Amino acid sequence: MKNLLIIASIFISAISFAQRQTYVIKNLKMNDEGSQYGLVYQQGNKVFYSRYRINDFGSVDKNRMGQTIFTLYEGEIAAGGEIINSKEFKSSDEFGFNSSTAAFSSDGKYMYVTTNEEKRGDVYKHSTNTRNLRIERGEYVEGKGYVNFKTLSFCDQDYSYAHPAVSPNGDYLYFTSNIPSAKGPTDIFRVKIEGDNKFGDPENLGDLINSPRRETFPTISSENVLYFSSDRARGVGGLDLYKCIIDDDGKIGLPELMPQPINSRGDDICFVLNKNGKEGYFSSNRAKGKGEDDIYYFTIKD
Question: Residue 107 is part of which domain span?
Fold first, then answer.
């Protein structure tokens, strides 16, 4: 009985400690009436995020079907978490219509990007309205930036693959997909990174992570914590953010619903944590935002 009381006391103390953490959030100045989401850290104070592409006339760019085009922007972190000096990401490789939700290897050598199924100039096999997503990887070349983007070897054109995230040790690539082994509309998978653009077979993260509903937008912290969004039952509303610990052997723990104000009645996605574990960003279309999706900066107070 005494041992049980000690265990219970430790458990209660852990809960009390977690409850003492307070998230303080703010809407970034760069947000506007459009859509900004999916901020990720690159190197130093540099970040990448997704937003509507703006043309030379200052308006949102659209394709010939009248659909808005998403693209990647890069910027720098300033005081108070604000993002400054933003500019559209340019590469000698042209992506088909959209590019979004980037990820980087820990050494910065490789960049992973969500794009459409075919690049410009390819023969389109699917209609513009139904074109699938795929993940491409580029490599950093001094003086040129990220170039030589190629579709990952496991991507099947009949399904979508999106929202890449690389584990801190570089062993795994996590992503969202609707391949046949998905339990819901989209599940979170991972593949072993074997080098030389070779990957293992997609592995479904299992029933603890994936539900009959949507699971999407995985990210991995430097402490090997998986964050993702789901609209499963018993959430706060819309897509909610969850987190779970990944052991050194790759075993994934139970997901935990993140607290408010990180979660809201809207869709809350793309949670990233700084290496210091005390600040970061997430995206949301919650009420009283500036646009369709806004990027929020947060700090954690103990």
Answer: 23-301
